[in-house]
Design goal:
The complex is a heterodimer of chains A (204) and B (355). Chain A is an alpha/beta fold and 204 residues long. In chain A, 33% of the residues lie in helices and 27% in strands. In chain A, helix 3 links the parallel strand 6 and strand 7. Chain B folds into 2 domains: 134 residues, no CATH class; 138 residues, Beta-Lactamase. Chain B contains 11 helices and 10 strands. In chain B, the strands form 3 sheets. A 5-stranded antiparallel sheet of chain B has the order 7-6-10-9-8, with helices on both faces. In chain B, strands 1-2 form a two-stranded antiparallel sheet. A two-stranded antiparallel sheet of chain B has the order 3-4. In chain B, strand 9 and strand 10 form a beta hairpin. Chain B is elongated. Classes of the chains: A alpha/beta (204), B alpha+beta (355). The interface between A and B is large, with 82 and 83 residues.
């Protein structure tokens, strides 16, 4: 849930990168951290707890301060969840209070089933938190498009973007930094839009 | 004189095979030295009446390459690239939304020439993957056609830029600084002031216990008195009765306290004064670590977790305590006892009021 701190004139928004194991969630954050054009004090440190084989053990965290919205400094806190199923408790904990979601799907044919299962797991975990995907802005990122065994985008759309309302989806190669900023920009735009819309509704 | 057992078995196999072939002809002729004829679509034993257009054709080798370990010993000989099998689309179609398509070993054997498999070598219900790439080449599903289009805000430009692509986010010249907002109204119209915060509740106006040091007096003067507010005021938290920065200032004034922070259960930093550490990172990790340990403690029937302590190698202790929907972290230097009673008292004042 967005945190509006009247005292410090800050808005904090929480974005969680969710997806199957080794799909590129951490790589997304690494690329954002490495390549975002931001003043040093606006870009926080990327904190990552990973195993020796670069599997996320707990979660990754990257805070970024950005633009001013109605006189409020906006801070986006980017989180990833551990992809491995055994860490589902951590996934649930990281999802608490999420404002926006980026689902990072792995485009490889052999990962399609895991994509579907992880997407269903995300919905289930949201339900345990009394949240619904219908009420949370989210974006799909079809990662690893550069690999030769990438499945057609149409099929990924059929699997993951086939709900009542279509959502923005981006092809990406996070390793090459392609599609990373497009995805992040879209989810932040959607979040800010929601923030302004809800503020206006409450003010009315 | 009874015929030898081998002859009986041969005749039995011969007739059973010809009987099966009559019901479900093999999709392709068995591999032969001569160039194989083009695959001939055929139904399976399960669906003998399926016309060819109701089948999808797969190279048998592509399927056997995906065999699980337990099925590999069942392969009598490796099929060539030219041998293919026909699988009814009705078996495949319902599975497309799952991201993988499987048939049983029995269904595969029924569709394939028997020469490739050892008899009764594996349970017939063992699942076999079909190559998804081949599946999609023949039957690509499409999205529902009555989807609502995505709600993309057109009036909000992108905020984040890659290095070298333009002005940094957060700087006034950046298009995302407030342009996205001002685009929503005529350019001549001034951007309205933010809606004033609701008046601080009575509890927030109550003076705190005077703080000892000049530094804390300065801090107390500096902090705003308006409470933090979750986005949904009717949400489960409700406004806090005091400004979080004031809470932190009070805790920092306690004897020996080296730092303190408040974090929401979401992992967002609410307030903090931790000169020797990163407040954002502490806020992100402390609630999750706490919740994780609390869950395990509960699973082990140890009871409810009220606080956790992390002892660092250089002697510093991080004490994390849950208070309502917030988490309070206190850093203590080596050898200094935690002012537990004072902290509990302060935590009580953090309980949200009903809205």
């Amino acid at each position: 849930m967005a945190l509006i701190n009247q005292a410090t004139k800050e808005i904090q928004l929480k974005i969680v990168y969710y997806g199957p194991p080794q799909g590129g969630k951490t790589t997304n954050l690494e690329k954002v951290h490495a390549e975002v054009d931001a003043p040093p004090d606006a870009k926080g440190k990327l904190t990552s707890l990973a195993t020796n084989s670069d599997r996320t053990l707990f979660f990754d965290f990257l805070p970024i301060e950005t633009t001013v919205v109605r006189g409020f400094k906006t801070k986006f806190q980017l989180f990833t969840v551990p992809g491995q199923v055994i860490y589902n408790t951590t996934r649930q904990l990281v999802l608490r209070g999420v404002d926006g979601l980026v689902f990072v799907a792995d485009s490889q044919y052999e990962k399609m089933e895991e994509n579907v299962q992880t997407f269903a797991n995300m919905i289930q975990n949201l339900e345990t938190l009394n949240q619904s995907l219908e009420n949370i802005p989210y974006v799909l990122q079809y990662n690893k498009r550069d690999l030769p065994n990438a499945a057609p985008v149409d099929y990924l759309d059929f699997l993951l973007n086939n709900r009542e309302t279509q959502v923005p989806a981006f092809g990406s190669s996070a390793v090459a930094g392609e599609g990373v900023f497009e995805t992040l920009n879209m989810i932040t735009r959607m979040l800010l839009h929601k923030l302004v819309t809800e503020s206006a509704r409450k003010a009315a | 004189m009874p015929p030898p057992r081998a002859i009986v078995n041969f005749l039995r196999n011969l007739f059973s095979r010809s009987d099966k072939a009559a019901r479900a002809p093999a999709a392709v002729p068995p591999p032969a030295p001569a160039p194989p004829p083009p695959p001939e679509p055929a139904g399976t034993a399960a669906q003998p009446s399926s016309p060819p257009e109701d089948c999808a054709t797969f190279p048998l080798k592509a399927i056997t390459d995906l065999f699980p370990e337990q099925l590999k010993p069942c392969l009598r000989k490796q099929p060539s690239e030219h041998v293919s099998v026909c699988i009814p689309r009705a078996l495949i179609q319902p599975q497309l939304a799952a991201g993988a398509v499987r048939i049983t070993f029995a269904q595969l054997r029924a569709a394939a020439p028997e020469i490739f498999f050892l008899a009764d070598a594996a349970p017939p219900d063992t699942k076999v993957l079909l190559p998804l790439e081949s599946v999609l080449r023949q039957m690509m599903p499409s999205r529902r056609d009555n989807q609502r289009p995505p709600a993309i805000p057109t009036n909000i430009p992108s905020i984040f830029l890659k290095t070298g692509q333009g002005t940094a986010p957060g700087s006034p010249a950046h298009p995302g600084a407030k342009g996205w907002y001002s685009q929503r109204r005529p350019a001549c119209e001034a951007e309205p002031e933010p809606k004033p915060a609701p008046p601080a509740p009575a509890a927030a106006q109550k003076p705190f216990v005077p703080l000892a040091s000049e530094r804390h007096r300065r801090e107390q003067k500096a902090v705003a008195t308006s409470p933090i507010r979750p986005m949904d005021p009717a949400g489960p938290t409700g406004p806090l009765p005091v400004a979080p920065a004031q809470i932190i200032a009070r805790i920092r004034a306690l004897e020996g306290v080296a730092g303190a922070f408040l974090a929401s259960a979401d992992g967002l930093a609410v307030a903090g004064d931790v000169p020797q550490a990163n407040e954002n990172i502490l806020a992100a990790f402390a609630p999750t670590v706490f919740a994780q340990l609390a869950k395990y403690a509960d699973m082990a029937h140890l009871g409810l977790t009220e606080a956790i302590e992390i002892h660092l190698s250089h002697g510093l202790t991080v004490h994390v305590r849950r208070t309502g929907r917030l988490y309070l972290g206190v850093l203590m230097p080596p050898g200094r006892p935690l002012p537990t009673q004072e902290l509990i008292h302060i935590c009580d004042s953090l309980q949200p009021r009903a809205t």
